[in-house]
Structure formats: structure tokens, C-alpha cells
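Q: Is it fine to ask for two folds in a single conversation?
A: Yes, each is treated on its own. Send the first.
Q: Here.
A: Result:
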Amino acid sequence: MESGRHAGTHAGEIETSILFRAAPELIREGYDEADHDGSQRPFLLVHGMAAYTDSRVVGFPSLATNEKEKAILETLRSSFSAHFEVLCD
């Protein structure tokens, strides 16, 4: 990932990369020009996302690629596998 962990929380690099494969019809036209650095949102829980971005994008969808989707899902799978094992015990 090129964007930082806190820079993209909605419609950014990670979510858009996953959507390339999972539901490409949900990716809006102009996604590649919709970047919004949302790293500074101290009152997000109080004011909501609309206080920080008109487009509701918080992150860098222009950095998304279909190839990143595989790496993202593998990382999620491996990081959650231990949790699933505990739940199954």
C-alpha cells in the first residue's frame, strides 16, 4: 500500500482495490481524481464524515489497483486466522 494506514478509511486505496474484483460496478467514474487526505479528522465521531469531505472519500482511490486486491485479502486472511482459530476452539 502506498497510502498510510490512517490516510484512507473510506473509498480509499484499500476499499477501491478490493472493489475492482468484488464489485467493479460500485466504483464511481472519476475515482482516480477523488483523492482526499483525511488523516486529520479529530472530531469524526462527533461531526461525521461530511464535516471533512464533500465527496465522502477519505483516502487515495487513485492508488488502487486490481493487483493490490489479492495482497490485501491475503493480509486480512492471515491476520485474522488466529482469531478465527480461537473462536472455533
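Q: Second one now.
A: Result:
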Amino acid sequence: MPNNDHLTATFTTDHTPDEVFTAVTNVRDWWSGNLIGDTAARHDEFVFTDDCKYAGETAKEKKGIRFARFQLTEVVPGERVVWHAVDSYLTSVDDQHEWSDTDVIFDISATPEGTTLHFTHRGLTAAKSECFEDCSRGWAFFIETSLPQLIATGTGQPIPKYL
């Protein structure tokens, strides 16, 4: 993942833009099975919660993302999805609301090779974001491994659903 202005990742697949879009909006199957809310239509809201035993529980002994609440502000089938981080609470950085008021952008475009997805977490920068390195590693796995695997095989590698 390049260390540029905003956190980014890109991949190309031989699947259609509509197939990529469908996978992107199926967030539970590539990011986390523990999401609360809806993830497919404009104005949908969902909460990513920390990987604890029960939804909404806080793992006090573990540092990480306690929660991030997103609203889908832009949804263009086969082309673009934008999540706006309405609120967040991270325990691994001094600015515990570092993700708040950032945008997670999925730009999908047809290419001669198939479809390219360009991911940007706008608002997280190498120069100003304490979580940039850790967040880059995390997003790289989910965007460059789990999401393409979901598109190609029907099974991604999300954080497992609570028991």
C-alpha cells in the first residue's frame, strides 16, 4: 500500500463492475461478521464493533477500534460507494476519534483487464494520522486479500461473527 496523501489500496479482477459492487456492499463477508446495521443503500448506517465475544462489548485489555459508525453517503451501482465515518473510538492512538469525519471510498471502474477497485480512506494520512501504519496493514488485508477472495470464490476472510 503506497504511503501517499491518503491511505489507499487498489486491485484488479476479471469480474464485472456489478460483481465488485455487490461484494463491496456485502461488508460482513469481507470485513467483519459483527457489523450492526445495513451496508448497501444510500443513507444506510452501520457500526463496526471491536472483535469481542458479544456485539457492543468492549475488550478493555485489547487496544484497537472499539467502534466506528458509518453512513453511506454515496452509492452508485457498479461505480462508487462512500462511507462517512460519523463517529469512532480507537484505543490504540492518542486521538481516539481519529477516524471520525473521514471517508472510506470505493471507486470501481471497468478496464480492459476486467474491473479495478481503487480504495481510499480519505482523512487518514501518513503525515497526520497516528494509526496510518496499522490501519494501512489492516485495510490492505481486507481490500487486497479478503475482498478479492470474496469476489473470486464467494468466501472472504472477515473477522468472524460473534458466537
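Q: Anything structural to flag on that second result?
A: Two points. The chain has two helices and seven strands. The longest strand covers residues 65-76.
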